[in-house]
Design brief:
The protein has one helix spanning about 20-25; strands at about 5-10, 15-20, 40-45. It is mainly beta. The longest helix is centred in the N-terminal third of the chain and has 6 residues, at about 20-25.
Length: about 70
C-alpha cells in the first residue's frame, strides 16, 4: 500500500496517508494534523522500490572478469 505525502497550505504542516491506489482515485479527505485545515496539497518525494531478493549468493555469470564477486 503506497503512502501519499501532503503539506498544508495554511500552516506548512506535513502528513503521510497510507491508502490503496483505488482509495486515492476515489479521493482522499486529508486534514492537517497541526491546524485542522482541509487545504492540503499532495507533494512528491523520493521513490522507493522494494523487490524480493531471490538469491543471497552473488553470481557473476559465465564470463566473470577481474573484480567480479570479489575475485
Amino acid at each position: 500500500m503506497p503512502a501519499y505525502r501532503y503539506v498544508c497550505t495554511e500552516c506548512g504542516g506535513e502528513t503521510k496517508v497510507w491508502a490503496t491506489p483505488s482509495d486515492y482515485e476515489k479521493g482522499l479527505k486529508v486534514v492537517c494534523p497541526t491546524c485542522g485545515s482541509p487545504k492540503m496539497v499532495r507533494i512528491f518525494g523520493n521513490l522507493m522500490v522494494m523487490r524480493k531478493r531471490w538469491n543471497t549468493t552473488p553470481s557473476c555469470g559465465p564470463r566473470a572478469g577481474p573484480g567480479c564477486c570479489g575475485r
